[in-house]
Amino acid sequence: MVFKDNTFFSYVFLATTVILFAGHAHGANLCDNAPNKQVCNSIVGSRTNPRDAVIADLNKMVYENKAAKAEAKKQAASTEINICINIFESCIYYNKLALSYLNDGNRNVARDLIGGNIDSYQKCDDTFKNSGMNNPVAKSTKLLKDMASTGVYLSNLI
């Protein structure tokens, strides 16, 4: 009986070791050092290829910009909300452009385009702040800034 218990323990130990080493062979978790691990993990999922993760991030950003634009259009008309709507529209364009550059193998331009989004979303927030108003789409701009930071981080891993 003791022999069977030791054998079982050996198999469990061996299986655990193989699983751990196999995980490292495919690459460490892409989000280990990300600026916002929770957002990164939600985008990356089980992907182990940084390029695939950046593509997923860009596609998700296009979708979330469209959602943010739709939410902004529901707000009362103002100069500030119009600026944010224009920002969301331009970020959709730049994210699609970044996908194109990434597909052409130019990750540096793609990374710079993604990083430029962060400043754009901050401009939306600052426009309301400078007017002494609360940003009604602040949650959207926060999520989009986190997603853009994740995209920049992941593009550096390619």
UniProtKB/TrEMBL annotation:
The keyword Signal applies. Keywords: Signal. Residues 1-27 form the signal peptide. This is Pectinesterase inhibitor. It comes from Quercus lobata (Valley oak).
